[in-house]
User: What shape does this take?
Amino acid sequence: MLILGIESTCDETACAVVRDGKEILSNAIVSQALLHEVYGGVVPELACRRHVDVIIPVIEEALAAASVSLSDIDAIAVAYGPGLVGALLIGVNAAKSLSMSLNKPLIGVNHVEAHLYAAMMHMPLPPQFPALGLILSGGHTALISVDDIDTYTLLGQTVDDAIGEAFDKVAKMLELPYPGGPHIERLALNGDPKRFPFKGGIVKGHPLDFSFSGLKTSVLYTLRGQNCSYDQLKEHGNNPWELSEQDKCDVAASFQKAAFDDLIKKTRLAIEGTGATEILFGGGVTNNKALRNAFQIAFPHTQLRWPEVNLSLDNAAMIAGLGYHKLKRNPAGDSLDLEPATRIPFQRKQN
Assistant: This one.
């Protein structure tokens, strides 16, 4: 069964053809990173205009790379949320048009669920359920109990910034390019992660929720010299602290360690509560080598399932792959009344 997947939740326009939920025949992506770099983040209006320009060429590219025609496609899967509403509208309406013209089922896919499925796509067998899912991206940070493919329960989520967003903002403070994650990781390699005592946030009453706003603010105050010792400030004449390259490396390393320590602490609590023996990772932050190394050290007896590099960032192969399983459960697909959703809340697990 061939599923055509479409992804346009933020600043990537993507289309893929996947057979039987596993075999990726094509995975075409047009990134807008360079377009938004000058602004230090995604500008929604510019993102939408770019989606309009490239959506049809990307679909054509995916079909050509897979050596199939539209008549060979069995269903159209599309990420209908969460994301930027304008960007979602372009992808969803393209999918609806294909569904109507081809008389093929339309399948709405939750973008966040698809990130979890991305970690399963290259696995010969499904994970041992219930598994623990950890989403780490520019727009999302969440701990999720994965009871089966397409069956999830929220354990915890960020109450403010997503971890990827926090990396981008700290990178901007350090005058690094967008997206900031890879640049922070590169600086941290030469930094002292223990120099600055940064800490992740605690959400009262919700021990598995995340908060990176306070951590980000601590970095800002440190960069302004407000968290420096008297001797450090005296050395600089009580003027705003002028950071050396080594200072920047130390800030990056300390920030990265604090963020990852917070993830590990709450993941450990989630495993204790669920008894999960496998962790499924999703999202672009999972490409960070320091993150992977930290989790391997922290969880030596837990099976860690990382997505392949080409499936970690926003892509359409994960949309088509999960769409296959949704189609098996509902062969008629979704109604053409399907609307984009800027937010799609998971059901929170009750204590």
Q: What stands out?
A: The chain has two domains: 2-117+311-329, 129-307.
